């Protein structure tokens, strides 16, 4: 009953781009917001690496403002996630086969319960990571208005960049994540916000260690009601490494939007949705090189019956 109530409140009060409720909630969304949550191109998904297809158009991105430390406007407890608002006049992404320039509005996170109980939304071959970070951007033709993109029901209206977060036992792995998570004590409850976060962190510093030329691409939706199918998803293969103690701060500091008592925000991810025939693509393999050679068994081994070039390809470039 409480779970359902929270879900209804979330659905009514925050039909926005961040996460909602606890892990048990999302099964009700198709009833609450059937227009899209019961659609056929929903997110997140489980990425099956052996089914990923090569796409030579998935070139590198151009990231603007990711090295600028004056782009973080505020950090807010939205009741279902922690959302950092970005200065969308300074931060943008293009390239990578996106159809134009996308202005970055915010990033938010999804997590489980500490680093041992995972909470990423996307999974890879069934593996769920401890956390996932989503940078939400809107096509420049909408002049920074996410609601305009949603109203247009434009399948290319939003571009979300998804980054997995993996736990490392190294203490205080990155200074930036220490600074970011230190703000959480200022926003324990739903609706609380602080603007005192400028000039300290850049997006680049939070994404340290990720090769941003290697990613998966598919067409999907927001992962919260109304689950609008307006998102070009980019999910990067390399995880960001963040120390366990910093990951734990998320599930031990902030509270869900709740009627009366404080309930720690945990498991604020949606479970994976059916692919329904959608294809996940990724970078094509390099035509030559060592990996290529290894795929051809040296003579006199006979070629294995049933091995097709396509299968060899996928072995070559996945990972
Ligand atoms: C969701 O869609 C399926 C078929 O696409 C339909 O059978 C089901 O009744 C729908 N559920 C809701 C809650 O609308
Ligand atoms: C999260 O983990 C803590 C400590 O292990 C535990 O006490 C708590 O019940 C867990 N919460 C949920 C929602 O699983
Ligand atoms: C965006 O701004 C341009 C120029 O000011 C205007 O022509 C256009 O209608 C605006 N689009 C939206 C969706 O607000
Ligand atoms: C949204 O657009 C899709 C096609 O991209 C269409 O199938 C669907 O009916 C539209 N939904 C609404 C509510 O307009
Ligand atoms: C990690 O960061 C915390 C908080 O800033 C600090 O108290 C602690 O000494 C740091 N630990 C290490 C090993 O640097
Ligand atoms: C933020 O960027 C400005 C300009 O590049 C620089 O002077 C300043 O030292 C930076 N602040 C921090 C905390 O790195």
From TrEMBL:
Domain of life (superkingdom): Eukaryota
A Pfam entry, by short name: Carb_anhydrase
PROSITE patterns, alphabetized: ALPHA_CA_1, ALPHA_CA_2
Chemical reaction(s) catalysed: hydrogencarbonate + H(+) = CO2 + H2O
GO MF annotations in UniProt: carbonate dehydratase activity; zinc ion binding
GO CC terms in record: plasma membrane
InterPro entries, per database record: CA4/CA15, CA_dom, CA_dom_sf, Carbonic_anhydrase_a-class, Carbonic_anhydrase_a-class_CS
Required cofactor(s): Zn(2+)
Signal peptide bounds: 1-19
Enzyme class: lyase
Enzyme nomenclature, EC number: 4.2.1.1
Keywords, comma-separated and alphabetical: Glycoprotein, Lyase, Metal-binding, Signal, Zinc
Domain Alpha-carbonic anhydrase, residue spans: 16-284
Family annotation (CDD domains): alpha_CA_IV_XV_like (cd03117)
KW Coiled coil (keyword) present: no
Family to which this protein belongs: Belongs to the alpha-carbonic anhydrase family.
Function of the molecule: Reversible hydration of carbon dioxide.
Protein name per Swiss-Prot or TrEMBL: Carbonic anhydrase
Lineage: Eukaryota, Metazoa, Chordata, Craniata, Vertebrata
């Amino acid at each position: 009953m409480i779970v359902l109530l929270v879900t209804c409140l979330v659905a009514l009060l925050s039909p926005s781009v961040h996460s909602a409720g606890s892990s048990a909630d999302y099964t009700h969304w198709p009833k609450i917001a059937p227009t899209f949550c019961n659609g056929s191109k929903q997110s997140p998904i489980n990425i099956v690496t052996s089914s990923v297809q090569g796409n030579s158009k998935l070139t590198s991105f151009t990231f603007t403002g990711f090295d600028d430390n004056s782009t973080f406007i505020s950090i807010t407890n939205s009741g279902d996630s922690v959302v950092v608002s970005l200065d969308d006049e300074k931060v943008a992404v293009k390239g990578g086969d996106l159809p134009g320039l996308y202005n970055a509005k915010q990033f938010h996170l999804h997590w489980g319960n500490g680093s041992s109980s995972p909470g990423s939304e996307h999974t890879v071959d069934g593996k769920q990571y401890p956390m996932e970070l989503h940078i939400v951007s809107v096509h420049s033709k909408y002049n920074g208005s996410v609601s305009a993109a949603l109203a247009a029901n434009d399948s290319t209206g939003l571009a979300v960049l998804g980054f997995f977060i993996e736990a490392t036992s190294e203490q205080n792995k990155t200074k930036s994540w220490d600074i970011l998570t230190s703000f959480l004590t200022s926003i324990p409850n739903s609706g609380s916000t602080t603007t005192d976060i400028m000039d300290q962190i850049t997006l680049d510093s939070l994404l340290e260690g990720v090769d941003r030329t290697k990613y998966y691409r598919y067409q999907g939706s927001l992962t919260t009601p109304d689950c609008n199918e307006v998102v070009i998803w980019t999910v990067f293969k390399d995880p960001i490494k963040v120390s366990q103690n910093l990951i734990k701060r998320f599930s031990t500091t902030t509270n869900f939007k709740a009627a009366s008592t404080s309930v720690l925000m945990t498991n604020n991810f949606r479970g994976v949705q059916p692919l329904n025939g959608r294809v996940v693509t990724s970078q094509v393999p390099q035509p030559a090189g060592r990996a290529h050679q290894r795929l051809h068994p040296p003579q006199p081994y006979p070629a294995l019956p049933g091995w097709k070039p396509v299968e060899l390809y996928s072995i070559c470039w996945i990972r």
